[in-house]
Task: inverse folding
């Protein structure tokens, strides 16, 4: 359930066998419809809709680990709402921005076990 300040909420249902293959600087979220070629690299989540637009200054949390969003790609919100797909880049430069990604201020992907609550405030 989305609270007063929470604009997005989901849970991790599956973890692909190749999660972490990007050196701890990137994670990929994807709903159940992830292409077979990507499933092994993704955290599988429920597809939920955002209550507001994604924007710099918001916070994305993975359980107790919270990160400030510093940049949002042009396709990030649309992909998240339609497919549950979002790429989170940790400590990336603006020129590393992908259309379906967000950049956060952290340096490393936190530990994210199955059942972890993901939220954006």
Result:
């Amino acid at each position: 359930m989305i609270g007063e300040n929470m604009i997005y909420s989901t849970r991790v249902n599956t973890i692909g066998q190749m999660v972490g293959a990007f050196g701890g600087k990137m994670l990929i979220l994807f709903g159940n419809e992830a292409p077979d070629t990507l499933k092994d690299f993704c955290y599988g989540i429920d597809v939920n809709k955002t209550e507001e637009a994604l924007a710099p200054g918001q916070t994305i949390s993975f359980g107790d680990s919270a990160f400030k969003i510093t940049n949002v790609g042009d396709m990030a919100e649309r992909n998240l709402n339609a497919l549950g797909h979002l790429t989170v880049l940790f400590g990336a430069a603006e020129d590393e921005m992908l259309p379906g990604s967000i950049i956060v201020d952290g340096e490393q992907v936190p530990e994210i076990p199955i059942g972890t609550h993901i939220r954006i405030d």
